[in-house]
Design brief:
This protein is α+β, with helices and mostly antiparallel strands and 371 residues long. It folds into 3 domains: 143 residues, 2-Layer Sandwich (Gyrase A, domain 2), CATH 3.30.1360; 84 residues, Aminomethyltransferase beta-barrel domains (Alpha-Beta Plaits), CATH 3.30.70; 76 residues, Beta Barrel (Elongation Factor Tu (Ef-tu), domain 3). The chain contains 9 helices and 19 strands. A hairpin with a 2-residue loop joins strand 1 and strand 2.
Length: 371
């Protein structure tokens, strides 16, 4: 960032530095990429628990009598299926069907929704939302005022209960609760949700930025007995990729549509209209030219974003969008777009990755890779 746009730090910046985190620029923030090491942190989440500072994410409140109509029009999923305390994964699309962002929608009430958006897209998303607000919904960007922690892993519920007394075992996947006033560490304006980006059991804690250090410190202290470790962006990426979750800017973007990205399950083509629906319907009728597939490396080699994907004859048929070495499998894994041909998209198909003058074989596999 330039001097005119210095990097932001979350409220936990000093905590990260004190823990010896390697800090890197990310989406306008100085964020921890790792503490003890990516593999060590990754395995902590798979086997015990990890805590992530994800306060750089964006939060936009939508309020008022027209809140439902506004949200229903800008997202691909059908929010009429939501009820108070239910969350949903979805995307926002341009008129041409390109993905503006992927996001979470939380329904607090019929006239109040929380939209959780990607950190790198906060400014662009909020501008786009306002440009689509023909119904007069009240939009409030609360990103700077909101802190967000993710507590993930098999021991996450035990840690949360030890630190706060809150029992998350009855909290269903893609549901959330708003604790009664001062019933969670004496803090008001909290949301405890269960969505996750690691493929493990866990919760997200939204709280006022001013209270973030208190929540972090309490969880870290209680977590000492459970193997809790702080987790950086590096392990966050390997965890989400093992689980097959898309990353905006890599696997989805304005240059991709939900159908080719395998997100047809969150795209309501038979329901209410939404921005981009007509273009996506047209794409479906014409037939998709490519599809996003997952794959596991069969031999030595690590796929990286931008590497060419080839068929058996060596012809380029696509490109890797995300790739890494899976700490659980001990093998390379990845996602990438390939030509929409069953020879390349069918589970078990053998294709190749061209990298640095050699090609190594990978086998198409539907995520999650580590299960």
């Amino acid at each position: 960032m330039s001097q005119d746009h210095p990097l932001k730090g979350t409220a936990l910046y000093d905590r990260h530095v004190a823990l010896g985190a390697k800090m890197v620029p990310f989406a306008g923030f100085s964020m921890p990429v790792m503490y003890s090491g990516i593999i060590d942190e990754h395995n902590a989440v798979r086997n015990a628990a990890g805590i992530f500072d994800v306060s750089h994410m964006g939060e936009v409140w939508v309020n008022g009598p027209s809140a439902f109509d506004f949200v229903q029009n800008i997202v691909s999923n059908d929010i009429s299926s939501l009820y108070d305390g239910k969350a949903q994964y979805t995307v926002m699309c341009r008129e041409d069907g390109g993905i503006v962002d992927d996001l979470l929608v939380y329904r607090v009430s019929e006239e109040r929704y929380l939209l959780v958006i990607n950190a790198s897209n906060i400014e662009g998303d909020t501008q786009w939302m306002r440009s689509q607000n023909q119904v007069g919904a009240e939009l409030n960007d609360a990103s700077d005022a909101t802190g967000l922690l993710a507590l993930q892993g098999p021991a996450s519920f035990d840690i949360l209960k030890a630190a706060t007394g809150f029992d998350a075992s009855d909290l269903k996947y893609y549901h959330f609760v708003i604790p009664a006033e001062n019933k969670f560490m004496g803090i008001s304006d909290l949301i405890i949700s269960r969505t996750g980006y690691t493929g493990e059991q866990g919760v997200e804690i939204y709280c006022p930025t001013k209270d973030l250090t208190q929540v972090w410190d309490e969880l870290m202290s209680a977590g000492n007995d459970f193997g809790l470790k702080p987790i950086g962006l590096g392990a966050r990426d390997t965890l989400r990729l093992e689980s097959g979750f898309c990353l905006y800017g890599n696997d989805i973007s304005t240059e991709t549509n939900p159908l080719e990205a395998g997100l047809g399950w969150i795209t309501k083509l038979s329901g209410d209209p939404f921005v981009g629906k007509s273009s996506i319907l047209k794409l479906k009728e014409e037939g998709l030219s490519r599809k996003l597939v997952g794959f596991v490396v069969e031999e030595r080699g690590i796929p990286r974003s931008g590497y060419d994907i080839c068929n058996k004859e060596g012809a380029v048929i696509g490109q890797v969008t995300s790739g890494t070495q899976s700490p659980v499998l001990g093998k390379g894994i990845g996602l990438g777009y390939v030509e929409n041909d069953s020879a390349y998209t069918t589970e078990g198909s053998l294709i190749g990755i061209a990298a640095r003058g050699r090609t190594f074989n990978v086998r198409v596999k539907k995520p999650p890779f580590h299960k």
